[in-house]
């Protein structure tokens, strides 16, 4: 089920109906916004068939099987794209987590973007466009995705089983990301992961400088995992700010932080998240600098 992103949908639908779709699109936005769901729904619209319950000969989907997408996978993917559509007007080829392509795989894929072979619509999906070759980014038409309004997320059926208080809590944590809201409700491991991040934050706040740097060394290196940690920290400090303003009971671990300190930390987390998602910054150094402010 597609949640939000109406403007993006209307724009692509209009292009499709007018026969003016680009050869390749790059869907960009933070993790868990619904970019993959959007791409799959677009494929359904173009192929005019259900594609998730059974294989469709003109639907191609590629995602990392391990820590990367290798050149052999891309070569096979490109070969399938080059074949004539079997039943539809065109093939739809989606690459999720496109930044996971190795440099060799990206260079191989670039040739297809420069010299299209066959009738295929290509959709690359990523939260980290800076990890793609600039030439790949420039060959695609970018579609940017943004956090979804709360009223849109609450329409999802999975939220209807919750009490109003639970829904409010999930929406606060999700911060406009439908996928994050659904995971928190449907996946026990997502809730456990968040609990571990919050426990880690409590330890960091009480740790020495050496302890904080040691914590950074133990953090995962994958950008998606770092983003989830920063999003959880951001939620915690925003909640602490609300508490400090007297709207809710103040949490003990933040009681020593002044209003100005909380605001500065929130700003620094947002800046670090931006650097992590949009630049080739030294992530460990950026996180160490962030924890200096804690």
Describe this entry's structure for a reader.
The chain is of the alpha/beta class. The chain has 2 domains: 139 residues, P-loop containing nucleotide triphosphate hydrolases (Rossmann fold); 106 residues. 54% of the residues lie in helices and 9% in strands. It contains 13 helices and 5 strands. A 5-stranded parallel β-sheet has the order 2-3-4-1-5, sandwiched between helices. Helix 3 links the parallel strand 2 and strand 3. The longest helix has 22 residues. The chain is globular, with a radius of gyration of 21 Å. The chain starts with 5 loop residues before the first helix and ends with a helix. The model has no long low-confidence stretch (mean pLDDT 87).
Radius of gyration: 21 Å
Strand fraction equals 5-15%
Q: How many separate helices?
A: 13
Would you tell me which CATH topology of the largest domain applies?
Answer: Rossmann fold
What is the β-strand count? 5
CATH architecture of the largest domain: 3-Layer(aba) Sandwich
Keywords for this structure?
5-stranded parallel β-sheet, 54% helix, single chain, globular, DNA_Rep/Repair_Clamp_Loader, 9% strand, P-loop_NTPase, alpha/beta, 294 residues, DNA polymerase III subunit delta, Rossmann fold, 2 domains
């Amino acid at each position: 089920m597609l949640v939000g992103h109406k403007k993006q949908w209307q724009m692509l639908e209009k292009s499709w109906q007018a026969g003016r779709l680009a050869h390749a699109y790059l869907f960009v936005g933070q993790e868990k916004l619904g970019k993959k769901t959007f791409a799959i729904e677009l494929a359904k619209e173009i192929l005019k068939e259900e594609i998730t319950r059974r294989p469709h000969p003109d639907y191609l989907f590629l995602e990392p099987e391990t820590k990367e997408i290798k050149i052999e996978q891309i070569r096979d993917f490109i070969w399938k794209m080059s074949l004539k559509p079997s039943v539809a007007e065109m093939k739809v080829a989606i690459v999720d987590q496109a930044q996971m392509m190795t440099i060799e795989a990206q260079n191989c894929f670039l040739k297809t973007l420069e010299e299209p072979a066959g009738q295929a619509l290509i959709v690359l999906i990523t939260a980290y466009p800076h990890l793609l070759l600039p030439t790949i980014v420039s060959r695609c038409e970018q579609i940017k995705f943004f956090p979804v309004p709360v009223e849109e997320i609450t329409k999802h059926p999975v939220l209807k089983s919750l009490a109003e208080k639970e829904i409010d809590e999930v929406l606060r944590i999700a911060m406009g990301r439908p996928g994050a809201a659904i995971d928190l409700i449907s996946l026990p491991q997502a809730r456990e992961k968040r609990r571990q991040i919050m426990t880690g934050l409590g330890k960091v706040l009480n740790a020495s400088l050496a302890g904080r740097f040691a914590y950074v060394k133990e953090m995962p290196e994958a950008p998606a995992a770092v983003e989830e940690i920063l999003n959880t920290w951001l939620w915690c400090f925003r909640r602490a700010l609300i508490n400090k303003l007297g709207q809710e009971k103040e949490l003990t671990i933040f009681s020593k932080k002044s209003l100005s300190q909380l605001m500065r930390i929130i700003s620094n987390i947002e800046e670090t998240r931006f650097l992590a998602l949009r630049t080739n910054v030294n992530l460990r150094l950026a996180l160490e600098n962030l924890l200096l402010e804690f």
